[in-house]
Amino acid sequence: MIILFLIVFISMVGFGIILPIFPFYAERVGASPTAITWTMAAFTLGQAVATPIWGRISDAYGRRIVLIVTLLGAAISYVMLAYADSLSLVIASRVFGGLMAGNIATAFAYVTDITTEAERPAGLGKIGAAMGLGFVFGPATGGLLAGSDVETANFMLPALAAAVVSLVAMVGTFIVLPESLSPADRKPLFGKQAHDVPTISLAEANRSGLIRLFAAAMVFYTSMSLMESIFPLWANDLYGMGPRRIGSVFFVLGMISIVMQGGMIGPLTRRFGEKRIAISAGLFFSVGLGAMATATAEWQVWAALVPFGIGIGLFNPSVSSMVSKTASANERGAVMGKYQASSAMGRVAGPLICGPIYSGIALGAPFALGSILMLPVVLVLGGFRLASLPPETHASAQADGAKKAPDA
Which terminus of the chain has fewer Cβ atoms in its 10 Å neighbourhood, N or C? Predict the structure, then answer.
């Protein structure tokens, strides 16, 4: 688990380096706020298409090879971005980067391979903490490398730094990370045996509650991406924040997420259960976004980060654990891939609607919309019943949870 934690951390540092500067990067090549957010949607559109495919490939060939290939691809995409001198090249680099972003779903599947059902929420929380830690150091590093002034910011250096850290993560995966999925649990992509791969029909997914969880994830990440895609421009327009200060905001947000996912999620889940934690996450998240929408001073923005960060930190590990309990070992990569694809679709929808309402309605409108959207998510999660899962799924999941692969 320690090795996987470090690999996910390094990978997310690379992604986080770009986060506080990308809107300004696109703005420099002539993009409007709408074009900027749509360009950010291009990344997640590629991710939505590729994530289930990478999940299925990892079920067939193992998690390790998928992590290696996608990390190499991510490094290439950052080099493309560093040398992009037009909006079309920026979009191309982001689409390719999104196609390589399936490694997060694979990392979550890796955790489900090596943990029992009881250990799974804490294990998923640790990987979530690695992601949060990446968001602590990544944006802060990107802001420092770019500089404090938008007009004179160096955007090439952060992109190349992101490429380097992705390559480091790839080398670490190749050298020290053991495979988690045993050959006996793999299913080939082609041939007669490929038809034996467990699949989940629409009716079965509805009966098991997966549709509820997929829908909740999609709306949650729509709301989250409404904030992520426009925050740098919003903060600069209202409070004059440059890349360095914006990086500090994401640093604080990441620290809150680390505390929740790295230390609190395990004890909280044991005490209250995944469902109650997920519902609480939605409420905290809604309060944080609402506070941003109504902020009139910069200190209020910083205060709003607390409930917002708590919501982010609690939501993904709790809902991911709920999703994992519906799948056996040889379908877990595919199911987690579909869950991550639902999340990615939310990350596509958010930026697509964010730019137009930011420019056409009000600067705080994206945050207000995100806050409102979380209310049906809370209701959907409240209606989820784990006991409604098919009995054979429960038995399979418990049998698989009793087996642990070699520790990573």
Answer: N
Residue 45 belongs to what domain range?
2-182+201-401
Contact 94, 40 (CB under 8 A): yes
On whether residue 190 sits in a domain, the answer given is no
Residue-wise pLDDT tens digits, 2-26: 778 877 787 777 777 877 777 887 8
Query: Encoding tokens for residue 82?
Result: 């560093």
Q: What is the dihedral of CA 18, 24, 26, 32, to 10 degrees?
A: 140
Instruction: Supply the pTM of this predicted model.
Output: 0.69
Domain membership of residue 196 (yes or no) is no
Residue 171 in domain: yes
> What CATH number has the domain bearing residue 303?
1.20.1250.20
Residue 194 covered by a domain: no
Distances (CA, A) of 383 to 230, 281, 329: 32, 15, 26
Question: For the chain, how far is it from start to end, CA to CA, in angstroms?
Answer: 5
| Long-range pairs, 90-93, Cβ under 8 A, ≥24 | 90/25, 90/26, 90/29, 90/31, 90/39, 91/39, 91/42
Concatenate the DSSP letters of all residues of 107-147 into one string. Answer: HHHHHHHHS-TTTHHHHHHHHHHHHHHHHHHHHHHHHHHH-
Overall number of domains in the chain:
1
pLDDT digits (tens, 9 = 90+) for 48-70: 788 778 888 888 888 899 999 99
